[in-house]
Amino acid sequence: QIQGMPYGNCLLLSDGPINNSTGIPFFYVTPKDNTVTDLLKNPMASLTLPEADGNFCRKNVIDPEDARCARLTLTGQMVTVPPEEVEFAKQAMFSRHPVVRKWPRSYEWFFMKMNIEHIWLQSWYGEVSPIAVEE
Length: 135
Description:
This protein is an alpha+beta fold. 18% of the residues lie in helices and 32% in strands. It has one domain: Pnp Oxidase, Chain A (Roll), CATH 2.30.110.10. It has helices at residues 34-41, 55-59, 86-96; strands spanning 13-14, 26-29, 44-50, 71-80, 110-124, 127-131. Strands 1, 2, 3, 4, 5 and 6 form a 6-stranded antiparallel sheet that branches. Strand 5 and strand 6 (127-131) form a beta hairpin. The longest helix has 11 residues, at 86-96. It starts with 12 loop residues before the first strand and ends with a strand.
């Protein structure tokens, strides 16, 4: 009933090992997940990250998902990580989320990443500022 409709999901992500952040979101996914099935058909996606560590929200003890806290939205194409980047993706994901090493291998896990095309920073109740991808 929701075929062709936008669909959200929570996925673990990493932009690199703790000492080597790249800004490129990597994901460890399974084709058994409907989200991944959809992304393999239509790779356009968006990712919104709340201001978890910003000064305003932390200082005022405000929930990071509160509209007064900043959030960053990335949009772009989700692609399978090419073979030459798999080792980096593995280090990125496993160093930040060690639990994934214990996930059942029968689920055919593989790595995807987002090729970012647009970045928007929303800093307060709807004020949105575009940020150049190069930045």
